[in-house]
Write a structure and sequence with these properties.
single chain; alpha/beta; Rossmann fold; 4-stranded parallel β-sheet; 147 residues
Length: 147
C-alpha cells in the first residue's frame, strides 16, 4: 500500500467567512502534516462557485497530487445555494475524472446554520484531507496493479 510521504496537496479555499475558512485551512494543514503529506499551495478564491476553475489549474500541475476544497454555502431564503452546491460538486467530480487525481470535499452544505458550520469546520477540513490521501493511495495501488 502507498504511503503519504511526498504527496503534495493543493488547497482551494474561499475568501468569504474568514473566521470559518481560516480555521479550516489550519486544520487541513495540520491533518496533512500529521499524515506525512505537504500542502504545496493554497489558493484563495471568492467563494464556492469559483472553486472548480482554481482546482482545475492546480490539478494540471505535475507537482500537485491531490486537491482539497474548503468552503461553505450558507442557507438562504432562495434555492441559490442549493443550485450552486450541485453545480460546484458536479464540476469538481468531473475534474477528478479528467485529471485522474482526487479532490477532498470540505464544503459545508447549504442546509447548515452558521452555528452548525462552526461546529463542523474541523471535521470537514480534516476529513477532506483524509479522503484525498486515501483516494491517492487507492489510485496509486490500482495503477501499480495494472503494470
Amino acid at each position: 500500500m502507498s504511503t503519504n510521504s511526498n504527496i503534495r496537496i493543493g488547497i482551494v479555499a474561499a475568501k468569504w467567512h474568514t473566521e470559518l475558512i481560516d480555521t479550516m485551512i489550519k486544520t487541513a494543514t495540520a491533518e496533512a502534516t500529521a499524515a506525512g503529506a505537504e500542502i504545496a499551495e493554497c489558493v484563495r478564491v471568492p467563494g464556492s462557485y469559483e472553486m472548480p476553475l482554481a482546482a482545475d489549474v492546480l490539478l494540471e500541475k505535475n507537482e500537485i497530487d491531490a486537491v482539497v476544497v474548503l468552503s461553505c454555502i450558507f442557507r438562504g431564503e432562495t434555492l441559490h445555494g442549493e443550485v450552486m452546491g450541485h453545480v460546484v460538486h458536479h464540476a469538481l467530480v468531473n475534474l477528478q475524472l479528467v485529471h485522474r487525481k482526487p479532490i477532498g470535499m470540505g464544503i459545508i452544505g447549504r442546509g447548515a446554520s452558521k452555528e452548525q458550520m462552526m461546529a463542523r469546520k474541523d471535521e470537514y477540513a480534516g476529513d477532506a484531507v483524509k479522503v484525498a490521501l486515501d483516494m491517492h493511495a487507492v489510485l496509486a495501488d490500482a495503477r501499480d496493479e495494472n503494470r
